Amino acid sequence: MDQKSRRRELVDEYKRTGPEAGVYSFTNTQTGKVFLGSTLNLGSMRGKLEFGRATGSVTVLDRKLHADARQYGIEAFALEVLEVLEVRPEMTSTEIRADLTTLEELWRERLDPRHRVLRDPAD
């Protein structure tokens, strides 16, 4: 298979499946603080962290993490995908967002209460 055919195949697969949506956490490995979030595109979160590490930019992280990232460095943050949402083709973006909000709330309840979660559900 030539490179153009392989690229076309990958693009078609991406269009059929779309990006992975889910719940993630950024953990400051120096302090134990946890930032919990959800996104329609988990791959973009991975990419942001990789870009931030490559460039030394802390602004790729949520603003609530900037102070810690400046103090401890962006290398102190670990990204963990907590749960991937099963997105069905008939789901609307509104339905996906609502499911992500519910999953995020469930993960907040599951986290050890000693962890300092940096994001309020009201945000």
How would you characterize the overall build of this protein?
The chain has helices at residues 3-17, 42-55, 66-72, 93-110; strands spanning 21-28, 34-39, 77-85. It contains 4 helices and 3 strands; from the N terminus they run H-E-E-H-H-E-H. The mean pLDDT is 86. It starts with a helix and ends in a 13-residue tail after the last helix. Strands 2-1-3 form a 3-stranded antiparallel β-sheet, sandwiched between helices. The longest helix has 18 residues, at 93-110. By secondary structure, the protein is of the alpha+beta class. The chain has a domain at 26-110. Strand 1 and strand 2 (34-39) form a beta hairpin. Helices cover 44% and strands 19% of the residues.
